[in-house]
Amino acid sequence: MSLSHTAAEYMLSDALLPDPGGSRAKGLRLELPSDRLLKFVTVGLPLFLVSLAFAREFSAGSQISCFSPTNFTGKQSAYVDTACWDSLLHHGFDAEGHAITKSLWALKVFPYSLLVVAVLMYLPYLLWRYAAAPALHSDLLFIIDELDKSYNRSVRLVQHMRKVQQASTEPERFWEEYERARQERYFEFPLLERYLTCKQYAHSLVFIYILRNLLLLLFLAATCLYLVFLHLNIFFQDEFSCSIKMGLLQEEPHIPPLIPCKLVFFSVFQLISLSVGGIYVLLMPVVIYNALQLCQWDKGLLSIYEMLPAFDLLSRKMLTCPVNDLNVILLFLRANISELTSFGRLNAVSALREATANKEDIDTVVDFMTLLAGLEITKPKPPEADGSMSLPNGGALEVKPAMEAMGKASRDSLGSA
C-alpha cells in the first residue's frame, strides 16, 4: 500500500506546473499573426519600391530626355532638360484647336507620395500600440497566470484530498463531504471566471481593434483610388510637349515654341504603381477577415479550459454577443498559446476523457487526478458488490492503486479506439 501511495504522490507532484523561469511580459505577442503580416506588407512594400525608385534616379541621372534643336549647344540642351523637368507642363491643343496645358507634377512627386502612403499605413498600428496594447498586455498577463494557477490549484486539491482520505477514520463521511463540496462549488476559484465574465461587457479593446481595421481598409482603398487616378490621367502619357519660351527667352526667335520630351523613368513608375495597387487589392479581404473574426467565439480554447473547476463559461451559456473585449482576449490567447503551460496538459486530459468509456466519471481535472491517484470519486459500494475493504464501523473504503487505475484507463481507451 505504501508503494502505491508513494507512486501517487510522485505522480501528483510531477503533474504540477513549474514556475516560469523568466518574465512572461517580454514574450507576449500583442499583434495577431495576420496583423503582423499586414503591417509588414503594407508599410514595407512602398518603402522598398521607393528605395528602388530613388536608387534608379541617382544612378541613371536625368529622368527626362528632350529633343532639342540641332543648333543648340550642349549647355543649351542641358538647360532644356532641366527647365522641362522643373515645369513638367504638357502643352497641346484640343479638338477645336485651342491651346491647353496639363500638369504632370504627380509623376515628380510619386515617390514621395509612396512615403506618405507608408506613413498612413503605419498609423493604425500606432493607434493599437498606444491605445489598446497596454491594457491588453495586463489582461493577458493576469489571465495566463490565473489559468496556470487554476490548474495547479486543482492538482494541489487532489493532493490534499489524498491526505485527508488517508487520515480519515470514517470513509463514508469523507465521501459525503466530498459530494457536498462538489454540489456547493467549494472546489471552484471564481476570480478568473468572474473577471472574464466582466470582459464580456467591456468594449474598449474591440472598438479600437475594429477602428484599426477600418482605418487600414480606408487607407488601402484610398491608395488604390489614387493609383487608378494617376493611371487614367497621367500614367499613359510618357511623351509631352514642353515650352521654354518664358522669361528672358520669350523674345528669342531661334527657340521653337514647343520641344518634344520623353520621360525616361515612366515604365518604372508604372511597374511600381501596378505592384502596389495589385497587392493592396489582395490585402483588402485579409483586413475584412480580421474584422469578421470577432463575429464568432473561439470555443476551442474555452472548451479545453472547462476541465478546470473554476471555468465553465460554455456550460453555463454565459457567452453573449461575441463583439466584446473577451473575444479579442481569446484571439490573443490563441496567438500566445506557447505561454500557456497548462494548455498542453489540459488538452491531453481532454483527449483522454474523449477516449474513456465512462465519460461521466471525468468532469474536471480534479476528477481525472483522483482517478490517477487511486481515489474513487463515487461513494463506496457494499463489500459484497465490489469486494472492497470492510471497516469496523460498517463502512467501506474503496481505494485503488494508482498503477491499476492508469491501466484501467489505458485499457478503456484502447477498447474505445
What does this structure look like?
- There is one protein chain.
- With 417 residues, the chain is mainly alpha-helical.
- Helices cover 62% and strands 6% of the residues.
- It has 16 helices and seven strands.
- A three-stranded antiparallel beta sheet has the order 1-5-4, with helices on one face.
- Strand 6 and strand 7 (396-397) form a beta hairpin.
- Helix 5 packs antiparallel against helix 9 (204-233) and helix 9 (204-233) packs antiparallel against helix 10 (266-292).
- It is rod-shaped.
- The two termini are 32 Å apart.
- Residues 379-417 have low confidence and may be disordered.
Spatial arrangement of strands, main beta sheet: 1-5-4
What composes the largest sheet?
Answer: 3 strands, antiparallel
| Proportion in β-strands | 5-15%
Oligomer: single chain
- What are the segments in which pLDDT stays under 50 over at least 5 consecutive residues? 379-417
Spatial shape: rod-shaped
Indicate the structural class. mainly alpha
Helix content: 55-70%
Distance between the termini: 32 Å
- Determine the mean pLDDT: 75
**Radius of gyration in whole Å, from Cα?**
36 Å
Tally of helical segments: 16
Q: Output the helix-strand order.
A: HHEHEEHHHHHHEEHHHHHHEEH
In total, the number of strands is 7
